[in-house]
Design brief:
Radius of gyration of chain A: 27 Å
Largest sheet of chain A: none
Helix content of chain A: under 10%
CATH superfamily of the largest domain in chain B: Tetratricopeptide repeat domain
Number of helices of chain A: 0
Order of helices and strands of chain B: HHHHHHHHHH
CATH topology of the largest domain in chain B: Serine Threonine Protein Phosphatase 5, Tetratricopeptide repeat
Oligomer: heterodimer
CATH architecture of the largest domain in chain B: Alpha Horseshoe
Largest sheet of chain B: none
Largest interface: A-B, 19 and 36 residues
Shape of chain B: elongated
Structural class of chain A: little secondary structure
Radius of gyration of chain B: 21 Å
Number of domains of chain B: 2
Distance between the termini of chain A: 75 Å
Structural class of chain B: mainly alpha
Number of strands of chain B: 0
CATH class of the largest domain in chain B: Mainly Alpha
Helix content of chain B: 55-70%
């Protein structure tokens, strides 16, 4: 005593990588721009 | 405890004109950047109330529901738009996969371009179906696609396929 350590098999890990492929479309062209928005007051 | 009494709802009164679509998309984008998916769904709905077939709004709503773990809602939304010429096949297949409707999910991927996202999902479906040899083959196709951590799943498929002895070699050539 104590008994020796033994290795045991475990279930392999599988990641949900397809989840990362569910992506939002690019909205750049659909947004308001260059018309004196709130942020443009800081970046002028 | 008494409820907060000074909370003012920020919703505009009905007499105001609806906000411009580009303003809504600006708000929508901000919610997406901040991972505020519930809010994103609401803003996408506002866009859709003005432009019911807006593809970007529809895509945003579907993705936001998936990211918010509302797979059932995402799937019924995809069904409700099936007559529009918007390809949501991958999203549909993914939702079916999450519901463990594996045969339906697999069917949904059939005929799609076999790009890396399709292959990744196909491999995950095959794994759950216990078709580990086919699964290994799909990961081999993804070997040069530089997908981060895909080798984790590849190893899992090799082990489950009884090919644990190949793991070392496979990882060296990954």
């Amino acid at each position: 005593f104590p008994p020796a350590f033994q290795s045991i098999p475990r279930n392999p890990i599988v990641l949900d990588l397809a989840y990362n492929c569910i992506e939002f479309p690019v909205l750049e062209e659909r947004m308001k721009k260059g018309r004196g928005g709130f942020m443009s007051r800081f970046f002028r | 405890m008494a409820p907060k009494s000074k909370e003012k709802p920020k919703t505009p009164t009905s007499s105001q004109p609806p906000p411009a679509i580009e303003d809504l998309f600006t708000t929508l984008d901000r919610h997406i950047q901040r991972s505020e998916y519930e809010q994103a769904v609401k803003v996408a709905d506002q866009v859709l109330s003005i432009a019911p077939a807006d593809e970007d709004a529809i895509r945003c709503k579907v993705v936001a529901l998936v990211k918010d773990d509302k797979i059932d809602d995402a799937l019924s939304l995809i069904h409700s738009f099936h007559k529009l010429p918007i390809d949501l096949g991958f999203q549909k297949a993914y939702c079916l996969y999450r519901q463990n409707k594996l045969d339906e999910a697999f069917e949904c991927l059939r005929g799609r371009e076999r790009d890396s996202e399709t292959l990744l999902l196909e491999a995950q479906i095959l794994y759950r179906l216990g078709k580990t040899d086919a699964c290994v083959d799909v990961y081999r196709k993804l070997q040069n696609s530089q997908i981060e951590t895909a080798e984790v799943n590849f190893v899992a498929s090799l082990v489950s396929a009884g090919k644990a002895s190949q793991v070392k070699g496979a990882l060296e050539s990954w």
